[in-house]
Amino acid sequence: MSAKLLELLQSPEARQTKSDHLIANYIERNLAEMPFETAKSIAEGVGVSQMTVGRYLRRLGYEGLEDLKREMRKGAARTAWQVSGQWDRLQDDARDGRLLAGLIQQQIDDLGAIYNITLSAEWKQAVHELATAEEVYVAAWQNVRGVAQYFANQISYARPGVAFADGLNGTYSEILDGRCKNRCLVLMDVRRFASKARLLAEEAARSGVKVILVTDDSCIWAREIEATALIMPGAKGPLWDGAATSVALLDLLVANLVVEMGNSINARVDRLTELQDLFGDFEKE
Question: Coiled coil where (predicted)?
């Protein structure tokens, strides 16, 4: 998606009415699927008429949806920063509160999208796989690595056999050696994507490991691999990609896993509490 198109979709001119906001947000959040969209499918996804979608696109300067798709194909992958030539405007927006207000509203919108993910068949499948696998591995790279490690630590309170795979052995053999027949890999990656993410996902699937892919709507291969894909809204603003959306989705996944496992987690939580007291890592209440 070109920087020009992104700027246009986020401009006040493109968001004059409630319908404008809905259509712009839909286009931004469904970039990976846009080549397969029609005016009808967009209208149904947004809850407006096809005529409204057509009028909106023409008002933005496009002859129709195919014209918009051509514009999207011209765009290169975005880097984490999108601020070149925008510092004066961003600083003005920050001073009068518009910048943070816009970022907060985006996070609110993203949380709404995450709620819809929790109602999907993919979400239910992911929770089931996390609850029933004999071993669960979590892998991530770059700036989402810390978020993934946090997730691995959290689900280890609910069930045993959880580990973060850092790949430092160069083989990911702990995931791929076939020693355990019921393994699950939670692979987390968002743009800019790690070069080994798809390779690991595909090799894990070939090895019989169930793959849960947590990614964003810029991932063009999420539907092309054998995996349960949880696709979040991607970063939209000009500033550094934040982790709020990712953390929210993973926290909800942990909560749902706890409920799914029910009373079976009680003994584990009690034992972990005993160990925490034994090694004195926490203050006495």
Answer: none
